[in-house]
């Protein structure tokens, strides 16, 4: 079993502190301390032959003093699946609970929350356990200024295998990079939306698909126009037999690659021109940043797997011409939870350890995992080619 940034391509940089959580009082269920909870049960996804779990552990401070998360263990019975502390914990910890700037080491104030973004990858021979438990070490100061340490146990959660049937690709050909990274402060995974009093994470498994050339560039040297990007104008395809649940096609796109929109416009236009498909099994496929005027479906239409529904564009708050793609549990993306998914087939060509390097340097080899992958979700930073027959 490998713990860290899924899918476990290489071992993560993680500080392991044996015995870290063995001292201090046990506060069952959190008590008057950092109460742990997992709002969305993890669903097992297959990624490059490994079984992957990605979810969020929320820590609500129910005490009258500021508290500091010091360590987190993910457990299955007596087995420790992963342990994060020090820099390893800080790298996956949002101390504000809402992705607001907060300096490392800043305690969680009374009434505040923190979020730990957890990713665990199991080798093929080590299937995920049916349930997970958590043990958290918390530091604080009492009224006399004395440092105290508590050990909290709780947030038991069942692991789900209900990933649903495999989808067909949303695009043709390639190579395409799956741009997403759990480590980015404002990446898909770390952006939540408060709707009806509940914080949701629709981008938990979202991907921005960007087409590259053989040298890893997003557009030819010297290009200045959006339409010169390799992604722009590429067909967007239905990933399954579905009903069109939502369409938006009233936004212009930027014509130049270097065009920057102000924060207010980016907030207002968000995902830009969009199509949402109801897959009929409780899952919804979201396609965003589409080229204006390219959407060829209307709300209520039925589409078949592989049908063209639109073209890749540069609308909304996109940083470049790209296709934002996500599977969630509701038609309103902001009011939904992001779900993992499998594609029926794709060819893995390579990967970027840091997806932000795509466009400026070639990708690295995929090693033993290269070639046709079936019934899997592409890794973050994977470079893939989709079957041209779709």
Automatic annotation (TrEMBL):
- Name of this chain's protein: M23 family metallopeptidase
Report the transmembrane regions from the record. none
For this UniProt record, the keywords arranged alphabetically read as follows:
Signal
Alphabetized InterPro entries for the sequence:
Cell_wall_metabolism_enzyme, Dup_hybrid_motif, M23ase_b-sheet_dom
Organism, scientific name: Marilutibacter aestuarii
Annotated region Disordered: where? Answer: 90-111, 354-374
User: Which Pfam families does the record match to this protein?
Assistant: Peptidase_M23
Task: Give the GO molecular function terms.
Answer: metalloendopeptidase activity
Q: Which SUPFAM superfamilies match?
A: Duplicated hybrid motif (SSF51261)
Q: What is the lineage of its organism?
A: Bacteria, Pseudomonadati, Pseudomonadota, Gammaproteobacteria, Lysobacterales
Q: Which domain of life is it from?
A: Bacteria
User: Could you tell me which residue ranges the M23ase beta-sheet core domain spans?
Assistant: 230-329
């Amino acid at each position: 079993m490998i713990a860290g940034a899924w899918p476990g391509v290489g071992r993560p940089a993680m500080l392991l502190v044996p015995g870290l959580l063995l001292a201090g009082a046990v506060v069952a269920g959190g008590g008057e301390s950092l109460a742990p909870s997992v709002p969305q049960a993890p669903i097992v996804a297959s990624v490059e032959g490994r079984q992957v779990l990605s979810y969020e552990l929320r820590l609500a401070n129910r005490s009258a003093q500021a508290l500091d998360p010091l360590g987190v263990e993910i457990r299955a019975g007596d087995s420790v699946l992963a342990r994060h502390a020090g820099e390893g914990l800080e790298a996956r910890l949002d101390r504000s609970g809402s992705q607001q700037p907060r300096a490392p080491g800043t305690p969680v104030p009374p009434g505040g929350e923190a979020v730990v973004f957890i990713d665990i990858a199991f080798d093929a021979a080590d299937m995920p356990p049916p349930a997970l438990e958590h043990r958290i070490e918390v530091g604080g100061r009492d009224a006399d200024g004395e440092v105290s340490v508590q050990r909290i146990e709780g947030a038991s959660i069942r692991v789900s295998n209900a990933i649903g049937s495999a989808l067909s690709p949303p695009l043709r050909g390639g190579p395409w990079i799956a741009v997403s990274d759990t480590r980015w402060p404002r990446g898909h995974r770390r952006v939540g939306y408060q709707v009806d009093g509940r914080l949701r994470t629709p981008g938990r498994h979202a991907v921005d698909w960007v087409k590259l050339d053989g040298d890893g560039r997003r557009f030819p040297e010297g290009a200045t126009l959006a339409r010169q990007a390799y992604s722009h104008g590429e067909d967007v395809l239905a990933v399954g037999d579905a009903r069109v649940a939502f369409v938006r096609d009233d936004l212009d796109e930027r014509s130049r690659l270097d065009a920057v929109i102000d924060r207010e416009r980016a907030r207002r236009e968000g995902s830009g021109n969009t199509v949402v498909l109801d897959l009929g099994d409780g899952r919804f496929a979201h396609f965003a940043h589409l080229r204006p005027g390219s959407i060829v479906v209307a709300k209520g239409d039925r589409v078949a797997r592989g049908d063209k529904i639109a073209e890749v564009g540069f609308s909304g708050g996109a940083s470049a011409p790209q296709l934002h793609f996500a599977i969630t549990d509701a038609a309103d993306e902001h009011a939904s939870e992001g779900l993992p998914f499998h594609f029926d087939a794709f060819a893995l060509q390579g990967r970027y350890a840091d997806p932000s390097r795509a466009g400026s340097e070639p990708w690295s080899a995929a090693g033993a995992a290269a070639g046709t992958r079936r019934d899997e979700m592409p890794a973050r930073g994977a470079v893939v080619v989709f079957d041209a027959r779709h």
